[in-house]
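U., I forgot to send this yesterday:
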Amino acid sequence: MLWYQLPPKDVLSTLETDDQGLSSAEATKRQATWGENAISVRKTPAWERFLKQFKDPMSMILLATAMVTGLLTLFGAHLLPDTMVILSVVVLNACVGFYLEGKAENAIEALKSMMVPECMVLRDQGLVRIPSKGLVPGDIVELEGGDKIPADVRFIRLHNAQVDESSLTGESVPVTKTTNAIEGDQVVPGDQKNMGFSGTYLTQGTAKAVVVEIGDKTVFGEIAGMVKAAAAHSTPLQRKLARFIKTLIVAIMSIGAVNFIVGIYLGYEISYSLLGAISLVVAAIPEMLPALVTAVLAKSGNAMARQNAIVANLPAAETLGATSVICSDKTGTLTENRMTVTDVFAAGQAYGVSGVGYDLHGQFSQDGAPIDAAANPALRRMLEIGFFCNNAHLNDEGHSIGDPTEIALLISGAKAALNKDRQQRVEEIPFDSSTKYMAVLTDYEGERYIFVKGAPEILLEMCTSATDAEAKETELNREAYLEAARTFARQALRTLGFAFKRVANDHADLLHEDLHDLCFAGLQGMIDPPKESAKQAVANCKSAGIRTVMVTGDHPLTAQAVAGQLGIPAERVLAGTELNDMDSERLRREVEEVSVFARVAPEHKQQIAAAFQANGHVVAMTGDGVNDAPALKQADIGVAMGQEGTEVARQAADMVLADDNFATIITAVEEGRHAWKNLQKAILYTLPTNAAQALLIMGAILLAAFVPLFGERFVLEPIQILWINLLDSLLLTLPLMMEPKERGLLTHPPRDSKANIIDGLFIQRVILLGIAISLPGFGIYYLFGSPAVVNGELINPLLLTQAQTAAFWAILFAHFGYVFSARSIDQSVFSFSPFSNKWLLAGVGLSIAIRLIPTFAPATSSWFKTADFPVIWWPVILLCFLPSLLAIEADKYLRQAWKRLRPRRGF
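Result:
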């Protein structure tokens, strides 16, 4: 059934009058029609999911690179090891993708595990225990406190029954159920008081109910369907990289083809032109870019994990940095998920109560001034009633068992130093939804009392007096207490009234008829309070340009009150019933205006996330319940709670908060922005240097018609180009990721999610640095290699090899000049210490050492096609450090100057 629909009336009309249960024969017949009470899952074959990974653009460019290096191997370039390494990267990336794609099916498996193994059911006019998968619509099940509900059921008999639906609706308080019919065609789950949903718990009382939906038709079954059907959204980074890679493939292949055609046109041999085209492709393709991206994200993921944000999907580490909207569940995420008494009213006086959750440390105050509750007779009497008319249990460490409301009353009493050992209960009238009160007969301090707690309006009708400041009986002012209760309600506090009566010490029975002429002692108001850390986190999100939106299944007034305390705009609240009437276009408009959504169903959460995404936002969705799983998968990044969250939510999420702290998200956002900065630095270093090597090949083809030297050999051999690319990636680009976090990452809005990697800055630096790095290579090769070719004839092959080796070193130093400045995208290299990144210094040193291997091990010279050259060449080669450094510094200076001029020019 749909989330908001009630059970079919024709089913109930035939079953509510039947208290004998189904016969075994009828149950078997119905099971043949409806199937088993289990969530069905059609798993995608493993081989199909694995092969799918090779269709990813990243894998395609890697495979293309492997093909190129394989072709070069055929030409004698000895690149078989490189080909094998690249193919290994492709397989590794496929394995990672294969693992991540299995997360959705793992989420559904977690849902299936929440099905109840066995249950008590009426069959053949007798009560029997059967596996829950054998339930069929029409079965009558019997439940008692602590039982998990085995299917979606309609209650037909109840006794003091309450159900914990927090994992489904997000409401922290157990729901009191009823057998009354509910009118309406569209009623959200939280308002279906006569229904029990599969996987939720009966916290107290007993119940008899008829099964109306099983398996895939249950609420959990619908969740499984939504989790499975929800599109596996790629992150903004993945989308950008996909576009970037496709553009890069087209550009490189096109340039390579043009280079081949130009070579043929200029009259070069086909083999020379083909080798030039292949060399250009090898030079331009950033073989290690996928590994660099993974390394950046892995480093960021590790940093987040150290701060309790565990990333399950690596691209999510960067996605947080681009997040513009965080849709957060309320219960347990923004709030403590522990009911807490915050306000009390006794003897005409209002008091505040400090302390949050199950913390026993706290104090009472009046008008901001602390008071001693134990020395205030009226306040103490009211607290005693809530403390002793109570079935919860609490120890000195704050560990508790029982109903959250009763635990809150125990803790408020403990803050007044009350001790449960000082009373002995004689008799009890349990809480009942029809009477709306609970009463106990107890011996306390040598006297016998009736203590009663319940709905204030009900208790006030039983009272004829009230306590005064000394806890003595005085005239009852009902309107004053009712107005205090209304004030609490406007603050979204759950309010209980407390009354008592002194009885004879031999009074042994407790009957409803005894509950008259009571003395009203006061009110206690409680709420699931917001976390202090969440308040600061919401403020930090605002300063970082991130909007916080509350999406909860709780009551609208409660959501509005909590949102106001957190600093989330709550002038207007949209309820799930209103969302049912909205089309997607209207919802897209509403989400830009409304920041609090209450009484929502799981499909509503998905729709809200999708509406924000349609408006161009990058959406993070937090949650901890089963009901959150579909929305966690829908969002750009799903964030689940690690401590209180369900396994279903954790399996569906991209990131898990180990401390269940909303504030951890803003810390992770900062790490995400830092990851993007480092990734941007890596790309802005890698691509311009690759472009420079591609220009060396293109230039050689074009200059060969005018300078015979370039017709003999390229400036760099293909093996030397690969050597530069691979070592640069490992020894120079990776250390760029070790740059310390820049200041002010959380003081500006998130970057535009629609912005591409290829932007004006990227294109400018590729061209500028491509020229600044390639020109020294051309110059050194021409300067030292020209004497090797006389009248178009190669007379000294060794000298030409030496010139290539010198150009090889010239390109290396040009890269050094660039990499030091590339540590910041817009700040000058002279504005920070050159020693602040020791990893980069080590990388430069190791890079030089590795390139000296042929010098100290001459046998390896033939592998890399190098030769020792005269020492007198070194001063000129060392000067190649400057062009790239000066070019990038001039670019930064001009950009900063332009930013300063723009406001003055009125732009």
